[in-house]
Predict the 3D structure of the following.
Amino acid sequence: MKKDYLNYDKIAQLYNQRYPVSQKWERGQALLDIAKRIKAESILEVGSGTGYWLNLLKPTTNQLYGLDYSMGMLTQAKGQAAPLKLIRGSATNLPLKQEAFDFIYCVDAIHHFGNHQAFIQEAYRLLKTNGVFAVIGHDPHDENSSNWYIYNYFDTVYDTDLRRYPSGASVLKMMKAEGFKNTSAEIVEHIQNIHVGEAVLKDPFLKHNATSQLALLSEKQYQDGIEKIKQTIGLAKDKKENVVFRSEINVKMFLGYKI
Ligand SMILES: C[S@@+](CC[C@H](N)C(=O)[O-])C[C@H]1O[C@@H](n2cnc3c(N)ncnc32)[C@H](O)[C@@H]1O
C-alpha cells in the first residue's frame, strides 16, 4: 500500500486550482440535497481536504466537521468561509464519539483510505439512527464510466487505480455487511472535457500534481507520458488529422442508511 501513498501536504497549496469559481459541480448539489432533505444538524466529511464541499453545505448547519490526515490540507480548509470544525485523524480509526452525526460522506477520497471496510465500519458507528452515509467518486472498474485519456498515455496509472479504488459493487457489499439499509448507487455528475490536439497540454488536470493519479508518478514516468501525448499530436498533424483527448467520467454516489 505504501507505494500508493500520496503526501497531500506537498500539493495542498495548489489543490483548490481544481475548483474554479466558474464551474458548478453537480455532486455538490447532490450533497446539499441530502443535507436539506434529512435536515442534517451535524455533518462529517472524511478526507475533507481543503473543505470545498463542506463550505457548500454552509446554508444547512453550522455543525460542519472535516477530518483529514494532511495538516497542509487542514490548513487550507481553515480559509473557507464556513466555520469548519477540523480534526486531524485517520479515516479507518475516527477519533470521534459514536452516534454523533446525521450525515457522513467522503468525496474522491475512499481510494486513499487503504482499508475501505474499516472506514465504512467507522462511518456506521459514528452515525445517529436514521443517519445517511454517502461515498462519492469515480469507479475505474466500470469501463463505461471512466473513459479518461490519462489512463491511455501514462503507464501504470490505470492499474494503480484498479488497485486503489474499490468497485462500486464492493462498496455496496461492504455497506450492507456493516448494517446499512436501502443502499443504492446513482450517477450524480457526468464530467465531459474534450481537448483537441495541442490544447490538451493546457488541461489543468494534466499537471503533475493536479490529481493523485499523476502525482504518484516519478518525474520520469510523468515526462514519458507527456512525450507520448506530444508524439501522438505530432503524428496526427503529419496526417493532417486532429487527435481528440477525452475525459468522460461518471461520478457516482453510493448511499446507505443506518436504520
Ligand atoms: C483527493 S483529496 C479529496 C479532498 C476533498 N474531499 C475534495 O473532494 O476536494 C483526498 C483527501 O483524503 C485525505 N486522506 C487520504 N488518506 C486519508 C486517511 N487515511 N484518513 C484521512 N484522510 C485521508 C488526503 O489528505 C486528501 O485531503
User: Anything to note?
Assistant: The chain has one domain: 2-258.
